[in-house]
Amino acid sequence: MEASACLCDVGSSRGCWSRQKRQRPAETAAADGKPAPAENYVEGPPPHCSLQDLPVEMLVKIFASLPGSDLPSLAQACTKFHHILHIDSIWRRRCREEFGFRENLQNLEMIGMSYREVYAKLFPYRNILGLWQLNTEHYRTLVNVVVDGLCITGWTYRPSLHTHVGGPIDFKPSFRIRLTERTSTMVECMEGLDSRPHNRHMQIRKDRFTTQCKNTDHRTDSPTRLREEWGLVLEDRPWYDWLTYRRLYLPPSHPDDLIRPGLFQYYYDVFGLMIAMLSFHGKYARVTKITGISKKTLEIHLMRRIQLRDGELFRNFNELSRVVQEIDEQVIREQQQQQQQQQQQQEDGTEENQGHGWQSPAQPSDGESGAAASEEQPVPFVLPVGVHSIDQNYPRTCRMCFYGVDTVTLLGFPYPRRFPGVFILFDENHFGFIQLEAKYFFLYGRVQNTFQNVESPSPQAFLEVLKNIQSIQS
């Protein structure tokens, strides 16, 4: 209602002072040809105007621009507001802006529903829309939950066996929530080999939701019991397998980022194309794998640029390995010195929380900027002799190279392995990495799909998402 205060001087209304020009005593005396008396004019109170006095058409526009969660309390303010908030155009705009609902009015009239009823159906599921990471016992995948007509559909990433990293990624329906039911909302499972669709039980909270299905023929994580305070519960069906989905935000961006952060796909293992997320953190960039069976994190040191020398460096694998090895040895020495300093500070009781040096996203990078990358003249790129790649359709020119470390933990192995190598920036939508020890090249291409409800509310919230991904993978 704070916004309504600034509307008081819009238009005329009952209770407002007259708009006729009031003459001061001096002006009246001058008009009568008399000497002007001493000025002793006192301004009256400011005009008063109520929001209720505005035309209905203007109130409809105002109310339609407010968050839908504020409208029920606004309807209790007075009878006029209560009647206005039954106008369906208000709820139509809220459904579109908040949930991406695009169903037309004719289809709703055929089933006897209004936009106001649709909003009431969608509102309990506002926290489920967006991107999620499904973590099963041995495999992780990506799930996109969207409003799809008169349903809410969870689309699961479908790994492709082709090796081309360009273009949109494929999704298949995993579950569906029907909004047309007049009584209880039905959740249908679209997965499994026995029968489809079939009922699925769901529990929802802001940062995760869990589904439980009577079919046991899909991959599940370890069965767990959820507390009652998790929130909304649909169709109580105990003893079925649980699937847990965790919230996934896309990284915030900053104009100084080397390229625009986001989701990229690359070919990594026998499951086909995998999905990873590029984010920037001051002196470092990070590529975090979010699908597949292994834990993989690529760390790029933006302060340790490798000079390309017109691309000749790629033609000599031994020279490239020597340059990277020198940088790697220096990095290890600095990390050891930092650990010793932190240990000494602990013993002295003067420890400072320096951490890894990771900076919150959406902050200026300390390394090369995107403007500098765009100004760099492309140089020829070829795979060094002896380096293999399953994707041969890579760009033939690149702009920048940096030292990086690929850390991989394979399924069944307790400790990660680190692979120093070269991060190669090709253009805004492609980058690559050469693992020198494995003599292997990975090409990353930007995911072309568009997603809704994926903006992180804060840089800290995104860092928490990264932390959760690592805890899931460990």
Task: Give a structural overview.
- This protein is of the alpha+beta class and 474 residues long.
- It has three domains: 50-122, Monooxygenase (Up-down Bundle); 130-248, no CATH class; 262-344 and 357-473, no CATH class.
- The protein is 24% helix and 28% strand.
- The chain has helices at residues 2-5, 25-32, 56-64, 71-75, 79-84, 88-99, 105-111, 115-122, 317-348, 370-375, 459-473, and strands at residues 130-135, 140-148, 151-157, 171-178, 186-189, 198-204, 208-213, 232-234, 241-248, 262-269, 272-281, 284-289, 295-305, 379-380, 397-398, 400-409, 417-427, 430-435, 440-446.
- β2 (140-148) and β3 (151-157) form a beta hairpin.
- Mean pLDDT is 77; it is low at 1-22 and 219-240.
Give the strand order, joined by hyphens, for the main sheet: 1-2-3-4-5-6-7-9
The rounded Rg comes to 30 Å
Nearest-integer average pLDDT: 77
Number of strands: 19
The amount of helix comes to: 10-25%
Distance between the termini: 47 Å
Structural domains: how many: 3
Q: Extract low-pLDDT stretches.
A: 1-22, 219-240
Our estimate of the beta-strand percent is 25-35%
Number of helices: 11
Structural class estimated from helices and strands: alpha+beta
Task: Identify the overall geometry.
Answer: elongated
- Encode the helix/strand succession as letters: HHHHHHHHEEEEEEEEEEEEEHHEEEEEEH
Major β-sheet profile: 8 strands, antiparallel, barrel
GO biological process, one term: SCF-dependent proteasomal ubiquitin-dependent protein catabolic process
Pfam family, one: F-box-like
Domain F-box: 48-94
Pathway: Protein modification; protein ubiquitination
